[in-house]
Amino acid sequence: MLKKIKKTAFRMARPDIMFYCLPWLMFLLVAGTIAQKEIGLYQAEKIFFSSWILWIGYAPLPGGIPTLGIIFLNLAAKFILKSRWEKKRVGTIISHFGILLLFIGAIFTALTTEEGFLLIPENETSHTIYDYHKKAFYIREENGTVYAIPFEDMKDQNHPISIDLPFKITPLSHCINCDVTTRPSSNSSHKGLAKEKQLKPAPLQNDSETNLAGVTFQISHADDDQNGTYISTEAMPSPLIITKDARRFDLRLQRKEASLPFDITLNDFVREQHPGTDMPSHYHSDITLTDGEINWQTRIDMNSPLRYRGYTIFQSSFTDNEQGQASILAVVKNTGWLFPYISSILIALGLILHLIIRLKGRYD
Amino acid sequence: MTKHTYLLTILCFFSLIGPALAQNTLDMRFFSKLPIQHDGRIKPMESFARHLNAKLQSNPNLENQTAIYFIAEAFFDPAKFSVKPLFDVSDSKLKQTLGLNGKQPLFSLSVIIPLLQKKRSFLEKILEKNPNEWNETEKKLYDLYETASLLKSVMTSFQIFLPLKIPLPERLISELNIPASDAETYLTFKKHEERFKTYLQKQPPEQIREDVKAFLFQITAIEQNTDRQNFVRILPPEWPLNTSDEWNSPWILINTGLSGPESAAYISQWERMAAAYRDNSPAEWRQASQSALNHALEFKNIDTTKNKLNLEVTYLTLNPYFFTLIFYALTLGICLIAFMKPELPLSILGLTTLISGSLFQMIAIIMRIIILERPPVSTLFESILFVSLICVATSLIMAILRKDKTFLIFIGALLGILFYYLGAYFAKSGDTLQVLTAVLDTSFWLGTHVIIITAGYGLCAITAMVAHFYLFKCVFNDNNASYLVPLTLKLALASLLLTTVGTILGGIWADQSWGRFWGWDPKENGALLIVLWLIWAIHGKIAGQLKDLGFMACIALLNIIVALAWFGVNLLNVGLHSYGFINGIAYGLSAFCIAEIVLIAVLTYISIRKFKHEA
User: Fold this and answer.
1) Please, which residues bridge with residue A287 across strands?
2) Cβ distance B12 to B82 under 8 Å?
C-alpha cells in the first residue's frame, strides 16, 4: 500500500503534468475573461474559475478547481519528492515554496473568507453587513426574534417551511432575476402585490448585483384575510406584515445579513473631485469604532483600509441622495490575507537568486 | 432662429469688416505660459491650446498653424475664428444627416452650429442610447457636436471685454450720460445697464428705434451665450473665505460677484492683450502678455510655479520624442549597414545613437514626472513610453556586456520606433498629461506595482524580439543560431521575475483597495496569463518537453500574450480597472496578433524543414 502511495506520489511529481495542465489553465483563463463581456464577472467566475466541471455542450471538462488542484499537487509532490536541495538550486526551491504558499493562502481564503458591505449614512451607527450576492427571506418578530430562510430554500417545495411560527409559509417559486409583470387573471387567494403582479424568471444580468431576486409563497394558518399567495422582491420598499395571536411579523426578501462584533459610526464622508471636473480625486470616511469600552476615531481612506479584530474595512463606494450622503464600506474577514505578502517576498527572492545563479553560469 | 444662430450671424457679418490681422507675427512666449485650470489641473495655455487643436486633427489646414495662435484667435478675434473652415465633414452620411451639399469637406463654426441646432432632437435621441449602440454616423455627429460646443465656449469666453460690434447710438450715450469709453465693451457697459433698462422701460415698445433694438439684441445674445460657460478658467479663487480650489472664467466671476481687486486687475491685463492682438501691435502684445504672466504668477492661491509652467511649455514645444525617433531611426540605419557590411566597425556608432535617443526619452519621462508630480507610469500612454525605455535600456545593457552588439542594438532601436508610433496613436486623441482617478491616488503602488509590471512588459517584448531574431536567423542565415537560446532563457527568467512580482503586488494593491487579493478581473487575468505562459515555456524547456526551436517559437509568441494583457483586456470594458478602458484598437490588435501568428508559424515551419533536411 505504502509502495503504491509512494509510486503515485512520484508519478504526481512528473514535470509533464504541469506542462499539460498549464495550457488548459490558460484556456480557462482566456475563455473566462472573454466570457465576462457577455455574462459578467460573477457568472464567469462560477463557470470557469470556481467550478469543478466546465460543461461545453454535453462534454464535461475539468473546471478551475480540479485544474488548479492538480497543478498544486504536482508542484507539492515535485517540491517534496524531487527537489534537489543544493546551493545552486536555492532560488528554484524558494520560489517554488513561495508559489505553494500562495496556493495554500488561496485555499484558506476560499474556505474562510466572509465578505459584505456596510452602508452607513452620515452621523449614524451600524454593525450590519450585507452580502453582495446571497439573499435570504427574513421573518422578524416584534420581540426581536429573526428567522432567515436561505433564498435557495424558497424554491417550489410543496410543503411549508419548518419554522416555529403561528402560521405556515410554503414557497411556490423563486427567481434570481425576476421580471415583474401584470398578472393576467387574479383570484381572491392572491394577496398584496400579487393581486396585480406576478414574477417571471428573467435572464441574469451581467452584473450580479443588479439582478432583482424575488419569491412567490403561500401563507396559511394565519387569519382568513391574510391567508393567500404573496410575492416579495428585494425592491419592495416595505415588508409584508402578518399578525396572528397578537404577534406581529415582518416578512421580506433582502440581502443576507451578518453582524460585526463592534459598531461603526460614520462621522463624516468626504468626496473630493479634481477642481473644475466631475472626476473623483479622493474619498474617505471619518468613523468612530465602538467596541465595549473602546471608542476609536479613525479614518478609512482609498488604498488605506482599517484592520480590526480580523476584519478589514475598506472605502468601497458611496450614495448621495436627498437623505444625504452615505458611505459604503466593504468588510472582509480573511484569515489568509497575510499569505500573498509572504509568498510574494519568497517568489521574488527565489527568482532573483535563480537569475543571479544563472547569470553567473553556475547552473548545470 | 435660435440664440446661437443670431450670435453667429452677427459675428460672421462683422468678421467681413473686421481688422485684417496677421497675428502669427506676435510673440507668444509669455501668452503660452499663462496658467489655466483645465481637466482638473493648472496648466500653461500652450497645453490647453494643444488639447483643443487635437480635437480638430482631421483638418489638414491646421497642421501648419500652431495651437497657440489658434487659441489666441478664438479668444480675441472670435468673428474671424467663427468663419474659419475648421470642421472636416467629408463623411457623406454625416453630410447628409446635417443637410450639407456639395463636395466641400471643411466647414466653419458659423455653418456647423446652426445645423447642429436644427438636429437638437436627433442629438437628444442619440444621447438617450448607450454609446456602445451608436452607429458610425451617430458617433461622428456626437463628436462634431462636442467639439463645436467646446469651441463655441472658447470663442465666447472673452466677449465681455471685446469691442461691441453694434455701437450704442451716440444720442443715447449723451442722453443716458454714459462716458463714450464705457459703451465700447460689454464689461464697461454693464456698469450702466440699469440706466439703460430704465430708459427702455419708459419707452413705448413701438417707439424704440431699430439701432437701439439691435444693440439690445447684441447684449442679450452675449449674455445668453456666456451665462453658463465656465470652460476657460483663468482666475484662481481670490477671497480667503473661498476654500474651493476651483478656478473660474471671467464671466462666471463677474456673474457670481466673486471678483475682487486682484481678479479685476488681471482681467484688465487680458483686455490689454485683446486690444494689442486686434491692433496687431507686436510690442504692445509682448508687453501686455508678459505683464499678464507676471501678474498671474503673483496670485496667492496659484497652485503651480513659473518653473513648472516653463517646463511644460518646453516639454510640449521641444517634443523630445521627435529627437528620440530620429536617433532610433539613425541607429536602425546603422545596424542595417552593419548587417550588410559586418567588417565595418559600426557597433560603437550605433550604440552612441541609441544612447542619445534613450537619453531624450528619459528626459521626456523625467519632465512628465516633475510636471505631474507622480511616478512615471499612470496611464496607458505613459506605460508605452516606459516600456519603450525599458526595451531600449535592456538592449543597451546587453549590447555593452555582450560581443554580438549589432543585433541587440537593432532590436532596441526597432522596439523604440514601434513603441513611438504606438504612443503617437494613443496621444493623437489629445492631452496625455492627465489627472488620475481616485483609486490611482497612490504614489506607493504606482511606484511599485505599475513600474514593475510595465518593466516586465518591456522585458517580455525584448525577449520575444530576440526569439524572433533567432527564428529569422534559422531561416535566412546558415550560421548556428543556438547561441541565442541561453540568452533568451535568461531574459525569460528576468521577465518572469518582474511580471510575477508585479502581478502579486497588483494583487496586494487590490487587497488594500478592494478587499480581495484576486478577483478574476480581466486586467488581473491578463497579467496572470503572461506569468503562466512564461512558466510553461521555461519549465517546458528545462524539463525537456520543448526543444530549442519550440521554446523560441513560444517565447516569440509572448508578444501576442503581452499585447492582449496590456491592451486587449481593456477592450472588454469589464471589471474594476475602469480607468484603463479603451476603444478603437480592436482591429489593430487583431491584425497584429494574426500577423505575428502567421509569421512565427511560417518561420518555425521553414526552420523545422531546414533542420530535417540538414539532418
Assistant:
1) A266, A298
2) yes
Q: How buried is A279 (Cβ within 10 angstroms: 0-12 exposed, 13-18 middle, 19+ buried)?
A: middle
Interface probe for A, chosen from B378, B483, B567, B574 (most Cβ of A below 10 Å), is: B574
Give the span between the Cα atoms of B311 and B309, in whole angstroms: 5
Domain assignment of residue B131, given as a range: 3-26+42-160
Tell me the C-alpha distance between B336 and B330, whole Å: 10
Decide: B518 and B510 in contact? Cβ < 8 Å: yes
Q: B515 and A348: CB-CB below 8 Å? A: no
Spell out the domain ranges in chain A: 2-112+338-359, 114-127+258-333, 133-256
What is the arithmetic mean of pLDDT over A295-299? 94
Would you state the torsion angle of the CA atoms of residues A83, A87, A91, A95, taken in this order, to the nearest 10 degrees? 40
| pLDDT of residue B12 exceeding 60 | no
Q: Is the pLDDT of residue B269 over 70?
A: yes
Q: What is the DSSP letter of B433?
A: S
Which chain A residues are Cβ-neighbours of B501 within 8 angstroms?
344, 347-348, 351
> Which has the closest alpha carbon to B567: B589, B587, B593, B534?
B589
Instruction: Tell me, yes or no, whether B448 lies in a domain.
Output: no
- Chain A interface, best mutation among B517, B538, B561, by max A CB count within 10 A: B517
Residue in this structure with the C-alpha cell 503602488, named with its chain if needed: B445
Q: What percent of chain B has pLDDT over 90?
A: 36
Residues from chain B that touch A344, judged by Cβ atoms under 8 A, are 501, 504-505, 507-508
**ipTM of this predicted structure:** 0.83
| Of A239-248, B223-232, B462-471, the least confident | B223-232
Q: State the nearest Cα–Cα gap between B42 and chain A, in angstroms.
A: 9
B326 shares a domain with B193? no
B502 lies in the same domain as B523: yes
Cβ contacts of A39 on chain B, cutoff 8 Å: none
Whether residue B175 is found in the same domain as residue B249: yes
Which among A19, A106, A312 is the nearest to B515, CB-wise? A312
Q: Report the range out of A335-344, B242-251, B252-261, B550-559 with the highest average pLDDT.
A: B550-559
Q: Check whether residue B58 and residue B154 sit in a common domain.
A: yes
Is A19 close to B536, i.e. CB distance below 8 A? yes
Torsion of CA A74, B499, B496, B564, to 10 degrees: 90
Chain A residues within an 8 Å CB radius of B441: 281-282, 302-303
Counting Cα atoms < 13 Å in the Cβ hemisphere of A279 gives: 19
Distance CA B335, CA B413 (A): 9
B511 and B560 co-located in one domain: yes
Cα torsion A252, A258, A262, A264 to 10°: value is: -60
Name the DSSP class of A333.
Answer: E
Residues B176 and B154 in one domain: no
- How many separate domains does chain B show? 4
Whether B111 has a pLDDT exceeding 80, the answer reads yes
Smallest Cβ distance to A109: which of B501, B517, B575? B517
The domain boundary, picked from B160, B191, B215, lies at B160
Residues B215 and B285 in one domain: yes
State the helix-helix crossing angle for B3-16 and B109-118, rounded to 10 degrees: 160
CA pair distance B253, B243, nearest whole angstrom: 15
Q: Is B437 exposed, middle or buried (0-12, 13-18, 19+ CB in 10 A)?
A: middle
A273 DSSP β-pair partners? A280
Are the CB atoms for B122 and B129 separated by under 8 Å?
A: no
DSSP code per residue over B160-214: GGSBPSSPPPHHHHHHTT--GGGGSBHHHHGGGHHHHHHHHHHS-GGGS-HHHHH
Across the interface, whether the CB atoms of B540 and A19 are under 8 A apart is answered yes
Specify if B156 maps to a domain.
Answer: yes
Q: Let me know whether B482 and B603 are in one domain.
A: yes
Q: Three-class SS of residue B590?
A: helix
